[in-house]
Specification:
The chain is α/β, with parallel strands linked by helices and about 190 residues long. It folds into two domains: about 130 residues, Rossmann fold; about 50 residues, no CATH class. The chain has a six-stranded parallel beta sheet, with helices on both faces. Strand 4, helix 5 and strand 5 form a beta-alpha-beta unit. Helix 1 packs across helix 2. The longest helix has 13 residues. The N and C termini lie close together (about 10 Å). The relative contact order is 0.18. The structure holds magnesium ion. Magnesium ion binds next to loops.
């Protein structure tokens, strides 16, 4: 199977650094848990352009970004037996170098680092499985005839409804088992 693993929110806890930077700039007291919807920053009066600018600035400080889970490199290594693992991300061109440095620093092994313009562009790459935290990507994956989704549980995707071919993972530990399930269903 060809497996697309997302970077922000699935491997990298970039929103922690993002919250710190937003709080410094906007005088807010945002925490990750407050981000309970995909565009929830709008509720706190943060314009979209600032959202992405601050996310880029967070990546420029890539050494400050923790992984979503400890020993993330060895957890990702456990899915290598299921096929080809690519990192597929909407990271900006400007932060690509930082993102690759971060991935290498975390000792995450992968085949290709694939940058797309936006999350919508992921679906046309026709991966067998998308491991992602983006709520809006999941309906596209569900409708795509051969693709499956593993939605990595985050505060901002808890309201995603149950959909065909979309499985939910509370942690990386569950992902090998879910891939096994998908592999069986595809054969
Ligand atoms: Mg993401």
């Amino acid at each position: 199977m060809r497996i697309a693993v997302d970077l922000d929110g699935v491997l990298a806890e970039s929103m922690i650094v993002w919250c710190e930077k937003v709080n410094r700039e906007f005088g807010t007291t945002l925490k990750m848990a407050d981000l309970d919807g995909w565009s929830s920053w709008t509720k706190f009066g943060i314009p979209k352009d600032d959202f992405y600018r601050i996310l880029d600035e967070s990546w420029e400080d890539w050494k400050q970004i923790p992984p979503t889970e400890s020993r993330i490199g060895s957890k990702v290594a456990r899915i290598e037996g299921f096929g080809e693992v690519d990192i597929v991300t909407g990271r900006s061109k400007r932060t690509e170098g930082s993102a690759i440095s971060w991935v290498e620093h975390q000792k995450i092994r992968y085949r290709h680092f694939v940058r797309v313009a936006g999350w919508r562009d992921k679906i046309v790459l026709d991966y067998d499985v998308y491991v992602d935290d983006a709520p809006d990507l999941m309906p596209l994956v569900s409708r795509s005839p051969l693709s499956w989704g593993i939605l990595y549980d985050r505060p901002w995707n808890r309201s995603v409804p149950v959909m065909p071919k979309i499985l939910r993972a509370e942690s990386w530990k569950q992902i090998p088992g879910l891939l096994r399930q998908i592999q069986k269903a595809k054969n």
